[in-house]
Records
---
Amino acid sequence: MIPIEPALVNTSEGIIRSAAARIGGFFVFWMIMMTELAVKNLSFNYDNAPSLINNLSLTWPIGDFSLLIGPTGCGKSTLMKLLADLLQPQQGKICRQGRVGMMFQDAGEQFTMATPRDEIIFALENLQVSPQKYPARLDYAVATTQIGNLLDQEIVTMSGGQKQRVALAVLLAMNTDILLLDEPFASVDPEGRQFLIAKLSQLQQAGKTIIISDHLLDDYADVVQHVFSFSKQGVTELGEAEKKQLFQPSPQVYGHFATEVETSCFTLTQTQLTTNQLILDQEHLQLAKGKITLITGKNGVGKTSLFRALSKLMPYTGNISYEGSELSQLKARTYLQEVAQVFQTATDQFLRVTVGEELALSKQRRNAFYTDKRIQQVLEEMNLADKLDQSVYTLSGGQKKLLQLLIMLITNHRVLLIDEPLSGLDAHACQLAVKLIKENQTALQQSILIISHQTRLLLPICDYHLEFANQRLVYREV
Amino acid sequence: MNPSLKFILVLIISLEVSVKMSLTANVVLIIGAIIYLLFQKMPLLKIGRLIVIPIPAALTVYLTLAVFTAHPDQYSGLSLASRVYVYVLLIACVIVNTSAATFARSLEQNLHLPSKFAYGVLAALNLFPKIQQAIKQIRASGMMRGEYLSFWSPMLYFKAILQALNSAENLSQAMQTHGFVEGQKRSTIAQVPIFLSDWLSFAGLLLIITYLVWFFN
């Protein structure tokens, strides 16, 4: 609400201002009154799968910022899709008043048009917004999310974080009353994340209802009013004490990392990478052999492109040598059996239909470390042991990531390029993933490069820390 | 010219050209189309590609009719071979200065096609670069797990189709969350107008070309 300065109350300007504040306040109140979101006796299951949501009744606080937490695969995404009217429940009722907008886990697959401007036009035309009102809505959405420089860029060429900014801009232009955000920050850098959470908090203060699911709890302590915990038993709201406990700041990790590489698997010399602009211009760099290196850097800086170049999916200029041979001279077919990438999107990795078939394929070329016994043990830890006949596409976002990591750890490789292994994983699954990566590396002496923003969890297992900024990769001591 | 009018014009001309053999009309159309493409600042390399790629098709047609036949006929060989170029270059003229989005909007606004159809086509077009990327990625994923998928491997396309189905479902949900409801009225923010000059050039070009096609060999 707009604060009123007492000194102004009696002047004409003051009267106008106070009236504006009252109207503004009334408007927020009216908006909240006209909005409702509740579920009653809701049950849902996917075809042939056990019930995911069972007789759930819940009323969402309107005009507030709510955080939804819970383990991977418990049904958070499904509940959000039900609330957004994208899925129909088998039983129960959903009361929905006011316009609901949703942001998806998979940043790339939420746009119909090629560019942000066209997408915003498409959405506003759907809502029958007049051409006269369009410029103001566009300007507001663009200014709030700061996507002015991206407005006419093709969405396919953007990084995960940029796409999520655009997705938020579309919802802002649409002026939805309720914003459902399903793990929207899985691939967003810490700065981008802080920026978006602050924007969402401002929107909530302006009367919007925000419901967000996330596994990483940083930056929420001061902005959320409610935390709902989702489990097999149902959904419960956390009390004040539990909330406080949940948001306890975790200890900062201070490591000390080497900056000199002894033996290298990759050497970059006068290397340049270009997408639609120059992203890497590296004079000289060695990547350590038999070690774990964490690569951090802002969204869109070119981290994934570096991995694409190292796995021969993207051309480069200058030199990149792998074990003394020029990368461009090596045959992809043999090279990729030694050097593999664990993609950011899990489904890109899958080649078969069911979980069991994926595992069987990996077992054909497995390393000595992954015996049948170990595979079974890890599957149980991942809660995937009873899902062998399930299609990989129907697993939850987190389960897909875990399975993807497992099939790549089983396969015999000397170098693994792991892109965002922890995105979409709950705290328990994160720890498991980190542990498995470390165990593999120790047992097989693999060279592992990891891209992630989650330094707190990953730095303890890393030997080197590379920072990607200003078109250069530089080793950091902390 | 308005994209829909241009599309209809090209459609009519293509039909006329395929019904009646006219080398003169074909040559005029080919030269006209190239001049138009140059005028629209299409890079020379791209124009070159448009001329080189159809060579096998055009040459086959020419050789069949003008050389390897009991009654070789230079005229029909040349006019049918040049037809291949007429089609390719006219289609290039339609897409050279029209984005997929503008074309979809024009279909919806000018030809009053259902918006579901217009945007469905558009969404599918936007999937193309994704599918290209996916095929490259699937091949690499295969190699990373010791499975070599050649370009004629059914597994490659099976997997690509699986992914496309998955994307299609996500896409329809995406359209829905951005307010798209089948059959519901939509407003028009990005207008694709038809000017008088569009109609005049449409009628003028149609008359001239029809005259050329039917009265010149």
---
Amino acid sequence: MTQSNGFKVIGTRPVRHDGVDKVTGRALYGADVRLNGQLYGAMLRSPHAHARIVAIDTSEAAAVPGVKAIVTGADLPHVGDQIADIGEGAVNLRHLSANILAGRKALYFGHAIAAVAATSLTAAQQAVNKIKVTWEELPPVLNLRDAMAAGAAPLHPDVFTDELGEKSTTPSNIAEHLRHEKGDIAAGFAEAEVVVEREFVTGTVHQGYIEPHSATVQWNADGQLTVYCSTQGAFGVRREMSEILGVPISHVKVVPTEIGGGFGGKLNVYLEPVCALLSRKAGGRPVKMTMSRADVLAATGPTSASIVRVKLGARRDGTLTAAQAWMAFEAGAFPGSPVGSAAGVILAPYDIPNVVIDGFDVLCNKPKANAYRAPGGTNAAYAAESMIDELARALKMGPIEIRLKNAAREGTRRADGPVFPRIGFVETLEALLHHPHFQSRLERATGSRRRGRGIAAGFWFNWGGTSSASAQVNPDGTVALSEGSTDIGGTRTSIAMQLAESIGIPVNLVKPQVVDTDSVGYNDATGGSRTTFATGMVAYELGQKLREELIAHAARQFEVEAAAVRFEDGAFRTDGKPPLSYFDVCGALRDTGGEIVASVSMRTKGEGPAFGAHLVDVEVDIETGKVKILRYTAAQDVGRAIYPPFVEGQIQGGVAQGVGWALNEEYLYDKAGHMLNAGFLDYRMPTALDLPMIEALIVEVPNPRHPYGVRGVGEVPIVPPAGAVANAIFDALGVRMTELPMSPARNIAALAAAGVAA
Amino acid sequence: MSTLAVTTTLNGETVTFLCEPHETLLTALRDRLMLTGTKEGCSNGNCGACNVILDGTLVNSCLVLAAEVDGHQITTIEGIAGPNGLHPLQTSFLENAALQCGICTPGFIVASKALLDKNPQPTEREVRHWLAGNLCRCTGYDKIVRAVLEAASAGATKE
Amino acid sequence: MQTFSYRSVSTVEEALAALASPTARALGGGTDLIPMVREGRRQADLVVDVKGIPELGRLEIDAQGNLTIGAAVALHRVYGHPEVARRWPGLVDAASLIGGTAVQGRATLGGNLCTASPAGDSIPALIVHGATLIVAGPAGRRSIPVAAFCIGPGRTVLGPGELLIAIQVPAPRPRSGAAYLRFIPRNEMDIAVASSGVALQLDAEGHIAAIDVALGAVGPTPIVVADAAALALGQAPSAEMAAKLGAAATAAARPIDDVRGTAAHRKRLVDVLTRRAFMAALHRIG
């Protein structure tokens, strides 16, 4: 049956194909892998934030009964200064290698130093405790200001500032300084009648996926490596393994398990190369290693703490004339913070004629930053959207009014270069404007409670990348779909739906599976909000091929030309003959030319940039500083919602993470650089009791460059929340919160500084 | 320290397994009994991914020693569906798209079953309070809470 | 991971014999002990499971209305007991706050006391309810007021080989009420940044006949606000009295800066929490 959107499958809500396995405990995730003869690995991690490794003595550890192998950084082959594109950013492999197992120095608390494989986890852990490291402690660099200060001791002797494309000649903790310029910034501010400027600080936060990293690797005597792991990108793991270990890529097969959340934190390898080295040393026995929660928080990709300054100029009528942003992001121990994408995001929602954006990628003795859902976007938008709010108040304009007045549209050029194709920011703002939440009046609270309402917008580029898939039509009419995009949130189904729509069959006839790297063509990682867009585009093309083949088979059965056959409503028709059902044609494939198998690989283009606009009501207890989220509405242009409940779920989940970031989540370190809250008790992610229902308002401005209009959904919704909550707190208290998280103690301190008494 | 033999009623069947005294129930379920539906998220009682029902009470299996369950009854996620198919909570989670990555789902379903066994018609606030020990990072909880409320209104009490 | 042996006992005598070893530890709910030992934050070579001792599993109200809670009674039994909930609301406030639902299925008041965290939720509540502890040891049994039990973070007055048997909570006095409030950044699954328990009794004229205030997480042990009686006894309860008690709480607090909060915020919080707990306790006098 065709729905109001003109589609038969797209927009429906079938039960996801992997659903039963996931509600019955049958689905196998990283730590659920068990191979015959497997050994258990354990890791020694640095107790220091910065220390030279003088010597490692493993003799006592090797004597523990059951120990089969011990490895250190010395077991990794030298890796040159190669750059590999692994999805959400370029990674310097030499640094990646040193992040896997430290070389001469430990560069952060939790840095992997050595590992043991043994016949039991207990034996492996006991052996790890007996490895003796002789340390020479070095003073750590723990924040942006110290790291960037003139004369700061550099972490690496071989990192030189890339200053607007030119390499400097002295080592520095500033790995890169980038700049985007548009128009004439001086003239723009000269034209401005109102100028606002402020500096914001954000803390280090983690992706917080519930599944710890786990890998099981077997390095066979014939040189073949098989990797079972929970990853966002099996092909990225394959390439990193090949390059870190110095083995041909053809020797590595990666079998992706189900993945228990990633949000950008499972793009890179951590344990996999170590398990491989241990396996080889242990005579080819498979080695499994799983991180503890403390390891995950202390030593895997958090996202950057940052300092962001924003200056905006506007005319009295609200027209933005100039904007300047300066941002420094902590990269952690190795270069590569998301400052680049932050610089692209920060002012993207607005059409501003004169812009300068400066970004700095800064090293410090903290874990290497990794991508986290719209990397850099939340930091950037928190600052920018706070300033848009401040400007609107200075101009006595409404928060949606000022954003609509300056909204980016088709043809607007971003400061970082690209010109927007058809986008839906205006439609998103208008949807929020007309929503009952925005139209409602916020009831004021009594006593020590103050209420406020805030709005913020957010942008994400979205990404295409390369995807491949293959499919075959079975005699019973089912279509087996093999894909290489690991499924974090239901993409098996959103891709199967696009395949079904394209062929013209019900989605329950498609049997999607995510397969290993030897069994499907290349796929970029599940990241950048690309999978439903790009792998969906591949599924569309694949469907068109299968449909064409099916029509050819039906034509042979009809004994007519293929051009004379139509496939409509589940039946093949040609003039003057009774129709053939879809199942009749599938059942006769062997007699009409043989089975139908097809595969498609595409380097996709035409990703659809997307915007969100969030509205939140908060209540602040001015005696304790605690913030309660009363109501939340998130509007977003998704292009086309393939599976609307999953789209809502992505938006709701992004909001929840953004609210956690806004209110309570942050890494806490002591002065020596030891992480103090590496656990779910004190790294405070929102619980079910910390959030209300979150209304996701789906706006559909189809992406004209995708067959079904898909833009990508997952990243936009984490961009606006921190700014929206900050603006709501300002509305409640009249105090501009300039540091994330806006924790109770910080709110109380800010209230006291502002002279607001309880 | 010596290996212990533990006999327990697991998902309705009597089983005997060997374990070390320091092993948790979570480890024994996953590594001794091969029931990997019970997940490890934090190993210190702060995420709920390892929730099981022990003698009718919801517990974190990472905070129970395997040795402690000798003579007791355990229900894991693998024991929630009945011989006639999925438990209404499982169906409701699927129909409400209450899972994304799915790693926390077994814990949420076990916890929700313990809730509905005790309180068949909970309010939204009661659901949120009961499930506050179960962390989900994907969904923002909205669809999980709705799934539990819908299963409750459909009368998903004891299977 | 630390390894250890496990023994389950069914009598107090067996338990005491096992606990005679200096590296043995009693296991109740295990929600603190198991992760602490596994992560090396507590040493133990032998874990003695005391849940099989009937006396430690008792939850009884005697004819005089006094409550006895065995040291191994799980929290969900405490707050799930309708009479306990009605008569000792401050205790129930605390018992229903510790951990999440699954933790409460296992954790015990005995364990919360013996862990002796400065932030242990049950301790201020038990103090203001006037609870005492029954302890058995090599030298026989003794009773200890809860207020005198903790002597530092993780340290109690329990001697070598002693075992906490039960918590005795006296019957609530007529016209009395109690409340325990804590502040946490989230709404669940957190350790108190600061907390306050208040119990009070009114006389026939509606004046304060008795008052106890105890604070958590603002010192190395729970702190009894000694000035509370002088500020309140004999007077009619009021918002002004609440404010004075709050100020007294702030004065009594000796907080530190740590990962969970700042000293300045904690000083402010005990004021707020004490005022609010006072009003809540007053409101509960029925």
